[in-house]
Protein: Hydrogenase maturation factor
Organism: Thioclava atlantica
Amino acid sequence: MKFASEFRDPKAAKVLLAEIAKVADRIGATKDKPVHIMEVCGGHTHSIFRYGLDKLVHEGIEFIHGPGCPVCVLPRARVDECIEIAERPGVIFTTFGDAMRVPGTKKSLLQAKADGADIRMVYSPLDALELARRNPEREVVFFGLGFETTTPSTALAIQQAAREGLGNFSVFCNHIKVPEPIKALLDDPHMCLDGFIGPGHVSMVIGIHPYDFIAQDYGKPLAVAGFEPLDLLQSVLMVLRQIAEGRAEVENQYARVVPEHGNPVSLAAIDDVYETRPSFEWRGLGEIDKSGLRIRAQYEAYDAEEKFGIGYATGRREVEEAEGCACGQVMTGRTKPVDCPQFGRGCTPEMPLGALMVSSEGACAAYWQYGGARAVEPAE
């Protein structure tokens, strides 16, 4: 295949759907006793709903939406800390756009900007570096956010700042890792998962072997997937075939992009700049050991937590979820967005209560964008 349209070919999709149905019937999957497949990545969730794959697959297949949206899993306390930094005199706070409207306990970054804080949306940490060069009298802070997908670019920006001696640039590091929350979910006795669709962009950086424990220790199949509809359908079929054959392996459907052992340049940059935190708090999952990254001591001058004396540098704050918000349950696959009592009522894209409604990879945003008001039952 050479063109994106080929990955959306209806004829090829029908062939895959027929094969999925055949294997699902063979393993006895039904609507009342479905096979639960978790798509870890929020980008996959949006693709599933954009193309209606949840409606097209065999009724015995149920997609469980995982914690693969880095904006969504960030606890409200960290958003509060972003705002606390941004509201300090002389600070230019920079962030990716999908974090602007995520609510903290009192307001979002967008509301803080409206209140007068100098908060700017950027497309890359290199944009923040350029702001630091142009504003030597200001402190420029970049909101380092994301899984292994975005971690290398932040690491490279820190390395460049060190080479140039840009003392007015720093990163508020909230980079996190994918394998650890998957393990936390598998250790949860209340979770019922039969297989996984592995994240494509993350795997492009780390490769496929960090997921080996899922197959080896838990006996669950995983297929790393691309983001087009045929990618996802083929990945579902790969997982079902493993179940039917009694296998549990890590397979790479996205081999055109994902190298087996990852990207060595990216991994080297991550290893140089970051070290693993002892633990990090996840929305809905709580503290997970060794699931986050922090900036190494040799780059401490570019660590906003140390520079501003905030966050894990001074001790973590406990902040409860907004009342009635089910973000944690949705993100860990315990419930669906439409089952949250606030979905479409107290929580909409215009007035979000939780991060999942405004993030570009949030499950609630996917349900709203592709289901909208039709997904909301009339309130009693």
Observations:
- The longest strand covers residues 61-68.
- The chain has 16 helices and 13 strands.
- Residues 281 and 287 are 4 Å apart (CA to CA).
- The domain at 4-68+179-252 is CATH 3.40.50.11750 (Rossmann fold).
